[in-house]
Amino acid sequence: MTRFTVPELMEVCRQYYPAGRTLDDHEHGASPEWHRFHARWHEAMADRSRWLTLRGALEEAFPGISVGDATAYTHDGGYRCCVYSIEPQDKADGVSWEVVGCVSLLAPLYFVYGTQHRYRAGRRESPAAALFLESLPEALTSSSSKVTRTIESVFGYQPLPVQWVSVPIPGLCLDHFEPDRATLFRALFTLEPALLP
Question: Does pTM top 0.90 for this prediction?
Answer without folding.
Answer: yes
